[in-house]
Amino acid sequence: MKRLFLTLSALAALFSVSSAQNTALSQLGLEEASFSIPEAQLPDRGGAIDYTLGWDAEAPFTYAQNPASATPGENGTVTLGNVRFGRTPADHKTYAWGGVTVNPALVEKAIYAYKTFGTGHTFLVFTFKEGGAVTDKGENLRAMTFGAEGWSREPKGYNITHALAGKYPLIWLVTTFESYADYTVNYKQKEIFFRNMNIGPDQTRRLFGLLLARIDETNRNKETYDLFSNSCTNNPVNLINQVIPEDRRISLEVVGLANPNAAIPKYAVKKFSEKGVLLPETFRVGPDNYAAFDITKI
């Protein structure tokens, strides 16, 4: 299995066209914010692709996904576009999308989130103090989700074969926590697991700033989703690596090939747990406790 994984990693690498990436922190104007985020060089990413490469022109992109955008605003704020709101619609097409203005100085906590069904999935949840995340309708949000995803096509959705073939554009899906939980728990009837992170307030704010920069970088570069080197798991792993000591990081590569511990959701959870990056207690939301679950209380 390990040999197969490494072989597939090598094959996948042949489809990537490396290009030097500039740090996106300056693009967002975050160096002028009320807190300091040291610039960090982001690694090379997958090559740019045509968003319609190899797809049936009649097949729309999945209705539940949209690429979020990040635009710098006044006084260190950033406006997020294409944020998904509300409950899953009955037709599974007419999702609600809108804007949210975030203030990185008012980020409260970063939470490591993951799913174990199918191939698994990793994403980040951030909670905010009052005024830290305000919708374009003036409503305060307490929690939002941020996940790197392959932008799949209707009606099949994500397919591991298509992922291996490099068919998916990489996007960042940003949602209110309520929207993500409703979609996964009530519509998909699945569970989400959460672990608090062993990082302080300054590290949390820097992580959020790097995340915003990564969203902007992804959109500008039109990157390809790569199951091993540019996926839902190694993107957050790479961001977290940049705010923790070197001895607690997960290496993205081993002898020049993708490291399974950084690419596979369950392995990343195990490795970050061993290194003390994730606190021991696991929290869960599922069909049985959805109504009572409060992400801000964990």
Descriptive notes:
24% of the residues lie in helices and 24% in strands. Mean pLDDT is 85; it is low at 1-29, 31-38 and 45-55. It has seven helices and twelve strands. With 298 residues, the protein is an alpha+beta fold. A hairpin with a 5-residue loop joins strand 4 and strand 5 (121-128). The chain is globular. It has one domain (2-297).
As residue ranges, the low-confidence spans are 1-29, 31-38, 45-55
Classification by helices and strands = alpha+beta
Largest sheet: 10 strands, mixed
Order of helices and strands: HEEEEEEEHEHEHHEEHHE
Task: Give the strand tally.
Answer: 12
**End-to-end gap:** 36 Å
The helix fraction, in percent, is: 10-25%
Number of domains: 1
**Rg computed from alpha carbons, rounded to a whole number of angstroms:** 18 Å
Query: Which overall shape is indicated by the principal axes computed on the Cα atoms?
Result: globular
Strand percentage: 15-25%
